[in-house]
Amino acid sequence: MNYHIPAIFTRNMARQYYSRLICPQLCLLCGKPDRYGLPVCRHCIDTVFMPYINADYSEDIEKIQRCMYCGKILISEREYCTRCRQALEGSMANGKSGAAPQQPACTRIYSLFPYIGLGQKLVPLWKNNAIRTFAPVFASIIWQFLTANPQLTQLPLVPVPPRPQKLREKGWDQVEDIVRELSVYPQTRICRCLKRQDGTPQKKLSKTDRAGNLQGKIHAAVEQVPERVLLIDDVMTTGATLEACARVLKNAGCKEIVALCLFFD
Fold it and tell me: How far is CA 262 from CA 91, 116, 120, 145, 163, in A?
């Protein structure tokens, strides 16, 4: 039984009551009141967020093309973005030289929205101002994406674990908030099978230093991990955090790791 569900429903009802009768919540994108007390209104979700999903991940690939591995929107490249193509070519070169090729641990990454522009407006407010009501907004968007891709709804959701120091300082984690909201949707399974040690936050490091920063910092939190999982994170810059988590899951026996990120940078 998921004991978070009654608390989530009660909190959502209280938020709606407060917004409708006492203090209306204004949408941070269009400035209009939101009757559900959320920071982004239903209209903006449908007109700003959903077109990325409906156009980019539909069968009509002629509209907007994404990298076949990481999901970033392609501008001039074909099939793969520059970073993924270099990574794949590097693994092939290692194989030809006799070294063991290091294939990415993730089978595929679905990254939904660009950080430049859209993410820049919302993510700092979400994280720095602790507007935790973003969680039900993003959870509903993720759920719509999952239901449009039913092969993903069968996978247990594994949140990227936060640094313990961050939890001690802030008292909450945005990825955990999202998966907790997702737990109210039918047939959703949450598997918190990763844990993380303290260390330097990824955002404070250069892109070059991020991969090595997490080495040995992430571990399996359970004796047996699921065979197939959907790894959940909020923002992907280099993909180092997802790769580190996926590598741990694969070494623990997971056979297929698909990842989903809200924003790509």
Answer: 27, 12, 12, 11, 19
CA–CA separation, 248 and 155 (whole Å): 17
Using CA atoms, how far residue 10 sits from 1, 26, 76, 88, in Å, is 17, 21, 48, 48
| Half-sphere exposure for 63 (CA within 13 Å, toward CB) | 10
Instruction: Of 228, 230, 205, 202, give the one whose Cα is nearest residue 217.
Output: 202
The answer for residues whose C-beta is within 8 angstroms of residue 209's C-beta and 6 or more apart is: none
- Which long-range CB contacts under 8 A does 10-13 form with residues at least 24 apart? 12/36, 12/136
- Helix residue ranges per DSSP H, the chain: 4-21, 42-44, 50-56, 82-96, 120-128, 134-148, 150-153, 164-170, 174-182, 207-213, 240-251
Exposure string (b/e) for 37-65, b if CB count within 10 Å is 16 or more? bbbbbeebbeebbeebbeebbeeeeeeee
What is the per-residue pLDDT for 92? 58
Give me the pLDDT at residue 23, please: 67
Chain segment 83-99, per-residue pLDDT in tens: 888 887 876 555 555 55
Per-10-residue mean pLDDT of the chain, 265 residues long, equals 59 64 82 89 94 65 75 85 84 55 86 94 94 94 93 95 93 96 90 89 66 82 95 94 95 96 95
The pLDDT, as a whole number, for residue 202 is 72
Cα dihedral 176, 179, 180, 182, rounded to 10, equals: 160
Distance in angstroms (rounded) separating the CA atoms of residues 117 and 246: 28
pTM: 0.84
